[in-house]
Amino acid sequence: MKRPDQTGFTLIEAMVTVAIVAILAGVALPAYQSYVRRGQLSEAGTYLSDYRVKMEQYYQDNKNYGSGNVCASDATAASWNGFSPGAKYFTFACATAGQTHTVTATGNGSLTTGYVYTVDQAGNRGTTMYAGNAVSASCWLTKSSTSCDN
Prior knowledge:
The chain has 150 residues and is of the alpha+beta class.
C-alpha cells in the first residue's frame, strides 16, 4: 500500500521563515523610526525660521525685540507671539536680552523628546540637545550628533 504524498510545510521550514522575518523586522524597524524622527525634527526648523522672520518684522516696527524678557510684547504681535503655531512635536519659547533674542524649540513628541534647537536674531542656528545628549552645534542636527546636514 502506497502512502499518499503529504503537502504542506514542516515545522523546521516554518521556524526558518519566522527567524528570517524577525531578522528583517529587527533591521527595518529602527531604520523606519529614524526616518519618521527626521521628518518630525523638520517641524522645529520650519517654525523657528517663521518665528525669526516675524521677530525681525517686529523689530523693524518697534526698534526692539520686546520689553523685559518677553519677546514681541506689543499688542500688535498678539496674534503670533503666543507660540501656538500648531506644532505637534515641539514647544517653543523666546527670550530677549537687550537688542538680541533667542527662540528655542524643545521636542515633546515620543520621537522628538531630547532634541532642542535654537535660532537668534542674527539667524545663527544651534542644537543644544541631540537624542537626549548635550551638544554644542552651530546648525540644526537631524541625522547625527556630529554632522551638520543642513
